[in-house]
Design goal:
The chain is of the alpha/beta class and 217 residues long. 53% of the residues lie in helices and 17% in strands. It is globular. Bound molecules: SN-glycerol-3-phosphate. The site of SN-glycerol-3-phosphate has 9 residues, from α7.
């Protein structure tokens, strides 16, 4: 399973990258706004900076909602850097645009996916990635990881090539459960990635080893 970081914060991207386990980055308009990035030029420059920092796929989201606008914007985003994957929402014109991008050699990540039916449409249109939002599915009283499992099962038996990218991750346990059900990618906040490191018995054990090491110095 690949690890992406779900942020537009450069310090966090750098920290995750330095761990040596980072395979890519996903962003969205909310995450860009959180970093105070305003205006198309600033947003595009920010994407370029991220692409130069990380050797992997970087999802950059369109904000148009009509076919012509999505295609126009997606072409501009894809021209920023070869690492860019154009993130397109799961709407009617979005599906149409994903198919257009597929036919024209531009990779896409279909976002705001909450059901297996939506995921089938992404795959049929040729998206490189499908992004089920597991935290938000959980928030609405369903089981997000179960949706990831169902999508992965359908893609496997149907031979779809679209990669399942579990998004809206809220905890280390989400990451572990996504790995169990065969998600191809998990895009996580830095906190959840670092949360995987933690175990009190590791801390207790290390303290004891270091204490005992003093006896043999
Ligand atoms: O990037 C999309 C997704 O990961 C958003 O997560 O926490 O806002 O539901 P969240």
């Amino acid at each position: 399973m690949k690890f992406f970081i779900d942020t537009a914060n450069l310090a966090q991207i750098k920290e995750a990258n330095e761990l040596g386990i980072l395979d890519g980055v996903t962003t969205n308009p909310t995450l860009m706004a959180k970093e105070g990035i305003k205006g198309q030029e600033a947003v595009y420059n920010h994407y370029r900076t991220i692409c130069e920092m990380v050797n992997g796929d970087i999802s950059a989201e369109v904000i148009s909602t009509d076919f012509a606008g999505i295609v126009e914007e997606g072409k501009k985003l894809a021209a920023i850097h070869p690492h860019i994957v154009v993130k397109v929402p799961m709407i009617r014109d979005g599906v149409k645009a994903i198919k257009w991008f597929t036919d024209n050699g531009i990779r896409t990540n279909c976002t705001l996916v909450f059901s297996a039916g939506q995921a089938i449409l992404c795959a049929k249109a040729g998206a490189a990635y499908v992004s089920p939002f597991i935290g938000r599915i959980d928030d609405s009283g369903w089981d997000g990881v179960q949706v990831v499992e169902q999508i992965k099962h359908i893609y496997t038996i149907q031979g779809f090539k679209t990669l399942v990218l579990a998004a809206s991750i809220r905890s280390p346990n989400h990451i572990i459960r996504c790995a169990e059900v065969g998600a191809d990618v998990c895009t996580c906040p830095l906190e959840s990635i670092l949360g995987l490191l933690k175990h009190p018995l590791t801390d207790i054990g290390l303290a004891k080893f270091l204490e005992d090491a003093k006896k043999s110095i």
